[in-house]
Amino acid sequence: MSQVITRFAPSPTGYLHIGSARTALFNWAYARHTGGKMLLRIEDTDRERSTEPAIQAIYDGLTWLGLKWDDEPTLQFSRAARHAEVAHELVAMGHAYKCYCSPEELTQMREEARAAGKPPRYNGYWRDRDQSEAPAGVAPVIRIKAPLTGEIVVDDHVQGKVVFKTENLDDFIILRSDGTPTYMHAVVVDDHDMGVTHIIRGDDHLTNAARQIIIYNAMGWTVPEMTHIPLIHGADGAKLSKRHGALGVNAYREMGYLPEALRNYLARLGWSHNDDEIFSTEQMIEWFSLEGLNKGAARFDFVKLESINGHYIREAKPDYLYEVMLATAQEVGRLTDVDGLTANKATVLAALPELQPRAKTVLELIDLAQFIYATRPLAIDAAAAVLLTDDARGVLADMNALLRGLNDWSVPAIDAAMRTLAESKGLKLGKLAQPLRAALTGRTISPGIFEVMVLIGKEESLARLGDQITAP
Questions:
Q1: Is the N or the C terminus of the chain less surrounded, counting Cβ atoms within 10 Å?
Q2: 242 is in an annotated binding site
């Protein structure tokens, strides 16, 4: 068997959509599984909508996701001369022809077809007409000669055998009157020239496959193996939209998702290996097969994504997470956090094992770490403020006096002192810990509060307590 070559071919008209990212992932995983290559082609033939920032967003999104393509990216527009060459070759071979119909004539054809109860399409007027009849001064388009009888069969790894009646396919345009190729034609020429053996893409391209096979057959080229995967739907079963999560990959980065978690989650949207939900990228590559792709549409579920992301955060090494936290804070413009994380790196690293089980996103991790470098007096959130009653402030004053006399500022020593105070007041330790946490972190959730006190130190702990004891 020859080397497997897949391709990811996005249009640079915006961000790297999450659905496109999944298509890239499947192409990448299959190429890696088979020891093949995944090539990247930027389909930038829409010159008005294709932009350099959008192309860069595709590069950045794939790189962040860890989906490294092979060889240099191909820019489709740069190959326009090659596309035109093949179109004229098809004319010379008798498999395509020049069509001189005006827009008005085409409109009339469509109207007549509708009136006859037929699909509104081109009627083949110039298919067998002598070119000597061509009107002067009219630049023609080139149309492929679609078979007039029989069937086009797409043998698809997901959809099975899909049959298209040729009577429902018209002689579609492959080269416009200005000499530029249509999408349908450019894709075939590029896939052939790039040596693509397997096409893995959304099932919205399934009808395109029939038309593209006509061009392959006309040129005598081998048709790549086809795999058309169902599109992603929202949790409610409707077509994926922004409210469901149809965002750019960069948005998920900014929301605090780890690339390895997103890879894992996207892989499970339309592909499965037994009942495995959590698996490493190495396992995905080992297990990935086209037979494992699902025929039904997958549903995007933020709750599930958060759960998987939480797993990867819990399992990550603190050094790695610290760098991701810093990069994410910079990405979203949280400059105070950038400064705080940078100035308190050692303390943040020491705190992370306590913080990781409590966070599902990197943004939550950053929020949880803020107690380390928060400036006094701390901003107290609404839930924490409820705990700081007048009675609680009185208890905080007693804590302050007791803690001030501690010479050993360690978790066991602080724990013992707090237990002694709790017993003297007839309270459970938790009743002391709740207002203490609120005073020292401004929140109701944090690592163990005694660990927090050791992390921020005796002087800072007592100062924060003092702020709340005297607060109005």
A1: C
A2: yes
